[in-house]
Structure formats: structure tokens, C-alpha cells
Amino acid sequence: MKPRVPQIMEQLKKQRPEHIAALDLKALPFSKRIINDKKVTDHHAIIPTGMPPRKFGTNEQLVYEAIVTQFIAAFYPACIKNITSVDGIANEVPFQAKGTQVMEPGWNALFPTKKKAAGDQQILPAFAKGETALHAPFLREGKTSPPKHFTENSLLGAMEAAGKFVEDDKLREALKERGIGTPATRAAIIETLLRRNYIRREKKQLRCTDMGRCLVALIKDPLLKSPELTGEWEKKLKQIEHGDLKADTFMAEITDYIRSMISKNNNSQLDNSRWGSCPLCGKEVIKGKKAYGCSDWKSGCPFVLEPEFRGKKLSPHQIQRLLQQHILPHPVRLENELRILILSTQGLPMDLTPPSAKRQNSEEKKNTPQK
Ligand SMILES: [Zn+2]
What we know:
Elements: H1 4-12, H2 17-21, H3 58-73, E1 80-90, E2 93-104, H4 115-120, H5 152-160, H6 169-178, H7 186-195, E3 199-202, E4 205-208, H8 210-218, H9 227-241, H10 247-266, E5 285-287, E6 292-294, E7 304-305, E8 308-309, E9 312-313, H11 316-325, E10 332-334, E11 337-343, E12 349-352, H12 357-367
Antiparallel strand pairs: 1-2, 3-4, 5-6, 6-7, 8-9, 10-11, 11-12
Bound molecules: zinc ion.
């Protein structure tokens, strides 16, 4: 691969003379970050061939230009920034200010910054250690906004970076290189969720349907709903790839896991000798004077379940179901509406709209683009 790069650069000179002039084609800085044969799996990076493009549409031209820019930028020097960080104390309250100043743009020179991003860079004046001055404090009032709904793009990104949501370091490492699915299968996973009506498109956003919410509530095993499980599996697949684990051992583990999951879920009998487990720490739940709570409250577990939810008194039987199975099998009437009551993994009681074919169909019609 390496010998071809200078040739391709030579051919790209016609299109990007000033960008390539800054590079020494005889001594391109090949590092493992740029070309690493060990990391080639099913796809390598998309790079220009050097052939001049013929008859591109506008979008195709934009994609092509982006690939060329990225290719050239890989061989540019690093971007050097001055980062100033100031720790201050005002009226005994600590605060921090940060400023960034680009000293040498390096590869960044190929990517003109948008106005907004440039505005984010604040340049701080020179500070001396221990200096004090008078400041007039002011309050800025604002409101936090809820997390944005996923779009197809941001969901693909989240699947790719699924490791971000994993706390265990080793599993995060396993997910770092793979994420959920592969670049070739991620889009198909989203299409399957759409086709099965667990999510729907609302303009550019992807929204969870009532059915999707109920599915998540019905899956009792929290591991099955977490990126940790995918991380664990990806880690083992990697061990198999390197010959450190036998494929049969892995498959036997999966079979055991599924067996135990089915037997646990088939057993819908309530254990009447106890209330249930604390959803936060797994210890037993006890009944207090006014509410139910974690038996380990002395060590600081904050779990409490009130016996009343949105004006409805919950029977001891319903409390037991919520604590042992996290969902009530029959919808309950809340403020004259039928709702499904669940206990979330964070230990909060929540109510969901029961899925209905009629509602699902009308939502779908509303969101199908009219031709
Ligand atoms: Zn607890």
C-alpha cells in the first residue's frame, strides 16, 4: 500500500495543488496510525485512486472531495494548541475557566472552521499564580434541555461507540473497536427495529413506540438490555479469533445462559415468602411504616417504593409483582386511562401506554411520507 500513496498524491496534485505542495512526497510520515496492516479486517479505509473523477453529481462530488481531503490530511502535521486552564476561588467557591488558542493549525488547515466553533474558542489573558482582583458576580439563568432524540445518524454513532455507556474498563476496550454490530450490519439492525414496529421515524428522529417500551419493560434480565453483554461477547469473539478461546466453549456458555434465562422467565410464580429484591443493590426489600424500602438502607441504599402511584393504591400483591417481576401483568386504571405499570432498573415506578394495533397503525400512517 505504502509505495502507491506518493503516486496517488502525485495524481491528486492537479486537483489540490496548494494542499499537496505542503507535503514532502518523498518522505511521507507513515505511522501505524495511518497504515496498519494488523488492523485490516473486512474493510480498509476508503481512499482516492488518483484517477480524475468523471461526471459526478453534486452529492457524489461532495463525498469524493471529503475523501480526498481526509486522505491528504492524514499526512499533515499535528495541530498544536495552547490550552489555558485557570483555577480560581470567588467567595470560597471554586471555579474553573478554560481557553484554547491554535498555535499551528497542522491538519486542521484543511478543514475551515465554522463560525460557531471558532466562537467557542476563548482566549484568556495572562494570569499570574495567586493573583487576586475584584469581580462583579452575575447569575446566568437557563434551563437544561432533555437529551435529544436519536436520528438514524446519531444512533449509528451510538452503536459504534456503545463502549461509552459501559463502566467495566476491559469490556469498554472490547467494544471500542467493534461497538454493536459491524459497519456493514448496523443499518440493518435499525431497519429490523423499524419493521417490527419497536421504533418509528418521526421526520428525522427515531422514536420508541409503545410496543418498544413494553418490550424493554418485559425483558426481565437487565444484562440482556445492556451494552455490557455485547461487550462481553465481542471480547470472547476476539479471544476466539486469536486462538485463546475455543468456539465450542463459547457456544456452550451461550446455550447455558439462554437455558437459565428461559427457566427463570417461565417461572412466573410469585415467591410469597418475601417482598422481592432491591432493584438498586439486589438485597431484600422490607416493609416500613409508610413505604417499602431496601433492607440495606443503613449502608446508604436509597431505594424506596411508595405504596401509592399517581393516586392509585397498590395492593401488597402488586408490590410483590413489581419487586419480583418489575411489571404488572394487567394494565391498571390511572386517572381514567389504562396504563402498564413497571418498576424501572433505576427503581422508579413508571407507567406506559399499552400498545394497541389501532394507535400503532395511525401513528404509522401519520409518519409515512405522502407521495
Ligand atoms: Zn438496595
